[in-house]
Amino acid sequence: MNAQQQNNMKAQANEASEKTQEKGNQMMDSISNAGGQMKQSMQETGGQMKEMASNMADSAKEATGMK
Fold first, then answer.
1. Where is this chain compositionally biased, Low complexity type (predicted)?
2. Which residues of 14-35 are buried (b: 16+ CB within 10 A; e: fewer)?
3. By 3-state DSSP, what share of the chain in percent is helix, strand and coil, each rounded to 5?
């Protein structure tokens, strides 16, 4: 293998490495975004459940004359 072939192989390897790293970064960004969306969704669901429980407790108090 001559020097030109070695240089070509190194350049191809570097390009493949850069593409792989960029793809990895894109995947990590996607995962991070999905995690953030999941967290927001869970917080909203938790808030809704808390409100429902509070409403149920108020209804029970009203029904039993405790309010």
1. 1-15
2. eeeeeeeeeeeeeeeeeeeeee
3. 95, 0, 5
DSSP class per residue in 8-23: HHHHHHHHHHHHHHHH
66 burial class (0-12, 13-18, 19+ CB within 10 angstroms)? Answer: exposed
Q: Where are the domains of the chain?
A: 1-67
Q: In this predicted model, what pLDDT tens digit does every residue of 1-54 receive, in sequence order?
A: 899 999 999 999 999 999 999 999 999 999 999 999 999 999 999 999 999 999
Tell me the two tokens of residue 39. Answer: 């967290």
Q: What are phi and psi of 53, to 5 degrees?
A: -65, -40
pTM attached to this predicted model? 0.60
